[in-house]
């Protein structure tokens, strides 16, 4: 808890976190401490209310909190309620109860629904976690599906978070593996941040860096303990996920926790992939596949000798704004093309600016390699870590075939302004070539064309199966 207590000092939205065994009964006292005199609306679904609902209600009552209404209990399966209509329902219920503060009980989806509903009313809220599945519990922003497309909306993090390890440890293993998948991307995301730092594009925020990176590495080294839901492993994973959210608050950006690997996941989320599966394909499972993709790109890039780069040739071939727009519109669905055209054009340098960038890349590349090497794990290692943790470890295991997966390498770069390994390769005119090599017979993805595992120790039933 000391690390969390320290981290809370640099967070500007979350003021209190209780992490430990049996802390559900701290919900009431925390609510009073944060929102003295306000009434509460408990929001849960049938499953999460079953996990912790009675205890949360009892704790609120014991602390003298008035329940503004009966708990709002959504249907048991997220497929039945995830999406913007649920946000509107929670928001309208809250709005009908003047001054009431939401106390949500659930995993990522319920937290995001309540976060956005509360954010739209400019009311704070408190969240009780039921699984160690996402780092979004303590982060701002909510990922919500609107008309079948998932998008991240801006809204503040919860003012308070309760994470009871007895509850989290009893959660389905699939959800803990999902948290591991979300956390796995901190490794290549750290490499992306080092790159942006070295090129003067986005300096590293030292406090946010250590909040996210230090604990994540220790947790990620123990995938088997995660698969077995060992108490200390679930505790360490939960702490690390919470610290990651607080790291984003400290940096006022998702940069500390999200790099190119997350952009693979966002690309699939934006097209609604796996949204209607039961259970829906989780964020962390998609992110895990993005982590492997990003590690493979980094691995190939570390072997490049950029001293031979023909800077003038690359500058002469830089695409015009019209060409950038044509490419983005050809690659991405219309629903998010405008946003992606703007993101892609903001990153595309030309002429003297591109020349300066490329000279800097060539000059700094040996330092980038030196700094990034100890940060990374190999793609094969990342694949193995996810497999052992019980998370999907191949794109085909989340219903992404190899052609779609390959195309995602281009799309993932187009959808965000964030500078990552994808961008430095594109700036150097090498992205297509590096991706071709990865998918050639001798490349990483050429050698790993299927997700079939030869290892019979794989935990059964932990991977979401596409219908
Ligand atoms: Zn994430």
Summarize the structure.
This protein is α/β, with parallel strands linked by helices and 467 residues long. The protein has helices at residues 2-10, 27-35, 46-62, 78-81, 84-95, 108-120, 165-169, 173-184, 186-198, 206-220, 223-227, 231-251, 260-270, 283-302, 311-317, 321-331, 337-347, 351-372, 379-389, 402-414, 421-427, 431-439, 444-447, and strands at 16-20, 40-45, 72-74, 101-106, 125-129, 142-146, 149-153, 160-164.
Based on CA atoms alone, the radius of gyration comes out at 22 Å
Shape: globular
Number of helices: 23
Total number of domains: 2
The structure class reads: alpha/beta
Euclidean distance between termini CA atoms: 41 Å
């Amino acid at each position: 808890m000391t690390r969390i207590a320290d981290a809370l000092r640099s967070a500007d939205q979350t003021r209190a976190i209780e992490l430990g065994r049996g802390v559900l009964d701290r919900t009431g006292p925390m609510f009073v401490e944060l929102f003295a005199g306000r009434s509460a609306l408990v929001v849960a679904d049938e499953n999460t209310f079953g996990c912790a609902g009675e205890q949360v209600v009892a704790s609120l009552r014991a602390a003298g909190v008035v329940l503004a209404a009966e708990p709002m209990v959504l249907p048991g399966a997220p497929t039945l309620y995830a999406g913007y209509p649920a946000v509107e329902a929670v928001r309208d219920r809250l709005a009908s109860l003047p001054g009431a503060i939401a106390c949500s009980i659930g995993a990522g989806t319920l937290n995001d629904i309540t976060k956005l509903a509360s954010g739209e009313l400019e009311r704070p809220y408190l969240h009780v976690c039921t699984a160690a599945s996402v780092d979004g519990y303590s982060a701002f922003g909510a990922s919500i599906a609107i008309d079948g497309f998932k998008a991240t909306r801006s809204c503040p993090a919860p003012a308070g978070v309760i994470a009871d390890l007895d509850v989290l440890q009893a959660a389905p293993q699939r959800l803990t593996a999902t948290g591991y998948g979300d956390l796995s991307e901190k490794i290549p995301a750290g490499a992306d941040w080092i790159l942006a730092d070295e090129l003067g594009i986005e300096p590293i925020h030292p406090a946010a860096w250590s909040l996210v990176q230090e604990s994540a590495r220790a947790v990620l080294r123990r995938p088997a303990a995660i698969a077995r839901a060992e108490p200390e492993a679930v505790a360490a994973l939960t702490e690390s996920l919470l610290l990651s959210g607080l790291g984003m608050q400290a940096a006022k950006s998702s940069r500390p926790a999200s790099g190119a690997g997350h952009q693979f996941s966002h690309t699939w989320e934006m097209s609604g992939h796996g949204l209607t599966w039961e259970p829906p394909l989780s964020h962390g499972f998609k992110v895990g596949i993005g982590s492997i993709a990003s590690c493979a790109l980094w691995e190939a890039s570390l072997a490049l000798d950029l001293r031979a780069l023909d800077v003038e040739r690359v500058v002469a071939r830089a695409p015009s704004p019209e060409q950038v727009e044509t490419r983005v519109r050809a690659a991405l669905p219309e629903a998010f093309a405008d946003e992606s055209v703007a993101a892609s054009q903001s990153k595309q340098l030309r002429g003297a600016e591109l020349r300066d960038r490329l000279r800097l890349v060539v000059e700094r590349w040996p330092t980038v390699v030196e700094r990034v090497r100890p940060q990374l794990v190999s793609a094969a290692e990342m694949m193995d870590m996810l497999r052992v943790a019980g998370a999907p470890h191949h794109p085909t295991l989340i219903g992404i075939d190899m052609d779609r997966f390959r195309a995602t390498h281009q799309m993932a770069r187009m959808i965000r302004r964030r500078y990552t390994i994808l961008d430095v390769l594109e700036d150097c005119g090498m992205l297509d070539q590096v991706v071709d090599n990865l998918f050639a017979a001798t490349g990483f993805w050429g050698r790993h064309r299927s997700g079939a595992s030869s290892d019979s120790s794989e935990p059964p039933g932990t991977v979401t199966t596409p219908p």
